[in-house]
């Protein structure tokens, strides 16, 4: 089987296969000539997309004969000097450390727009940016930072949803306008980030590794380690120390399966707790114009990530639970339990309380997982863009609290009356579900407190601009009043 990675991105001249016909093989009249300096993967994909968009493309290479077969037939492959002379707009698609090799092209590139598509090797917070260094190297040209967040694959297959945005910046408005027009024609959406001083921010975008996910993931892992060790101490270590009974076989499946729902419920509670904190701060300060603390700001912006981590743990808990009957240990435990009951003379193994508890808490768990799945799906950008804000807030807030309520009910039914059984307090440690229920119950009770009419009315007033530090008062526009304003004589 041939190696797929060894094939060039673009099937060019020769090679026995002929050239691949593009969507638009002939450049449109009046279209500017686009130059590309560089012959790497990105340059080849860019050339293909430009040709398909109706542009005349000329590629500048140090060794044109070696690179000519890698580009479509409609693109001219020539020397770098010739490409710089012919082009009206030039893409600089060479590594930043090689920009100095282009100094000889300075006269040919004077007065032209240079599009810098390069990225650094690591996040640069100090500056200067690569684009600013390129502008210093070519002071008579107009440098635009763009297309560095678009991969060669996205250029080759065309824009798809999240890959449609092209961040760009430049000190020249005319140069930016020409690049914006080019973006639209290629099927991308240009996002103007302002002057070239914003290039540092644009260059750092592809280098970030899940910046919004670090705190949620660290929180999830910390909770998992805590609850795992807690369950290990109660269910494995305590029987071994007190009774000499080895239960270490529970570590891979049982202990993990008890830990996952604990993490899922706490993480789901952490999704809605910052909203309650924000509401309480607004009620306390009596205004919506006072900034939240920085930690609360960051927490509020990461609620989606907390929710998806909760969904992940819930799905894994479901899979682990479905696998429980398949284990040898589960079969042995079932047989031993049956033999003990037979020896004890028990003829009817049916226990109504246990049956009802199992039926109810499994049903509540399924409903909670279904609601969590709906929350996860609507958080996808492709889905969120198809619904309006009211629908989105209804799903994420109203149905989100329903999911939290059902998950809490699921945990309560699982615990049943074991919270009052002294035998469950091994090493004087309460059952895991008792600890897990603390935070979700606080969140649900806090949410109910905000539904109290006097509290809800004051919160609505604050969010519509009312401030307790001012003398102007108003009532909500639901009542029959002059545009919602109340006549106050002492103002």
From TrEMBL:
A Pfam family it matches: F420_oxidored
TM segment ranges: 207-230, 263-285, 306-327, 360-380, 392-413, 433-459
Catalytically driven reaction(s): 2 Fe(2+) + NADP(+) + H(+) = 2 Fe(3+) + NADPH; 2 Cu(+) + NADP(+) + H(+) = 2 Cu(2+) + NADPH
InterPro entries: Fe3_Rdtase_TM_dom, NAD(P)-bd_dom_sf, P5C_Rdtase_cat_N, STEAP_metalloreductase
Residues covered by the Ferric oxidoreductase domain: 262-396
Compartment annotation: Endosome membrane
SUPFAM superfamilies documented for this protein: NAD(P)-binding Rossmann-fold domains
Sorted UniProt keywords: Copper, Endosome, FAD, Flavoprotein, Ion transport, Iron, Iron transport, Membrane, Metal-binding, Oxidoreductase, Transmembrane, Transmembrane helix, Transport
GO BP terms, alphabetized: copper ion import; iron ion transport
Sequence ranges assigned to domain Pyrroline-5-carboxylate reductase catalytic N-terminal in this UniProt record: 34-120
Cofactor section: heme b; FAD
Membrane topology: Multi-pass membrane protein
Family statement drawn from the similarity comment of this UniProt entry: Belongs to the STEAP family.
Protein's UniProt name: Metalloreductase STEAP3-like
Organism per entry: Stegastes partitus (bicolor damselfish)
Gene that this sequence comes from: STEAP3
């Amino acid at each position: 089987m041939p190696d797929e990675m060894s094939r060039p991105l673009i099937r060019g001249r020769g090679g026995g296969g002929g050239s691949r016909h593009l969507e638009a093989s002939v450049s449109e009249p009046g279209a500017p000539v686009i130059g590309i300096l560089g012959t790497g993967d990105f340059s080849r994909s860019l050339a293909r997309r430009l040709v398909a968009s109706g542009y005349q493309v000329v590629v500048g290479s140090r060794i044109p004969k070696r690179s000519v077969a890698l580009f479509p037939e409609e693109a001219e492959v020539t020397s770098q000097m010739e490409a710089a002379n012919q082009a009206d707009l030039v893409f600089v698609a060479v590594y930043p450390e090689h920009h100095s090799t282009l100094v000889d092209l300075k006269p040919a590139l004077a007065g032209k727009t240079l599009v810098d598509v390069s990225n650094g090797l690591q996040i640069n917070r100090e500056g200067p940016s690569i684009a600013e260094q390129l502008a210093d190297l070519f002071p008579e040209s107009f440098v635009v930072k763009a297309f560095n967040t678009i991969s060669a694959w996205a250029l080759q297959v065309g824009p798809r949803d999240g890959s449609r945005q092209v961040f760009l910046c430049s000190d020249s408005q005319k140069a930016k306008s020409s690049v914006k027009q080019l973006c639209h024609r290629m099927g991308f959406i240009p996002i103007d980030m302002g002057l070239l001083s914003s290039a540092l921010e644009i260059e750092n975008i592809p280098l970030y590794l899940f910046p919004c996910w670090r705190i949620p993931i660290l929180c999830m892992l910390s909770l998992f380690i805590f609850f795992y060790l807690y369950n290990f101490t109660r269910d494995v270590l305590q029987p071994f120390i007190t009774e000499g009974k080895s239960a270490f076989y529970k570590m891979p499946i049982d202990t993990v399966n008890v830990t996952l729902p604990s993490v899922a419920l706490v993480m789901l509670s952490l999704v809605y707790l910052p909203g309650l904190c924000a509401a309480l701060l607004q009620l306390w300060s009596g205004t919506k114009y006072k900034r939240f603390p920085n930690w609360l700001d960051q927490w509020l912006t990461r609620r989606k990530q907390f929710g998806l981590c909760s969904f992940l743990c819930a799905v894994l808990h479901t899979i682990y639970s479905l696998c429980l009957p398949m284990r040898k240990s589960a079969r042995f435990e079932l047989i031993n339990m049956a033999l003990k009951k037979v020896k004890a003379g028990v003829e009817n193994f049916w226990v109504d309380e246990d049956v009802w508890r199992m039926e109810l808490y499994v049903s509540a768990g399924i409903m909670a997982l279904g609601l969590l799945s709906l929350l996860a799906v609507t958080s996808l950008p492709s889905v969120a863009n198809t619904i309006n804000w009211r629908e989105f807030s209804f799903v994420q807030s109203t149905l989100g609290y329903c999911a939290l309520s059902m998950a809490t009910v699921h945990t309560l039914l699982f615990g049943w009356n074991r919270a009052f059984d002294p035998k469950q307090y091994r090493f004087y440690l309460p059952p895991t579900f008792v600890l897990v229920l603390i935070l979700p119950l606080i969140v649900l009770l806090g949410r109910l407190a905000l539904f109290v009419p006097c509290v809800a009315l004051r919160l609505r007033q604050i969010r519509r601009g009312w401030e307790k530090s001012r003398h102007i008062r108003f009532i909500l526009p639901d009542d029959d009043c002059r545009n919602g304003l109340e006549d106050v004589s002492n103002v």
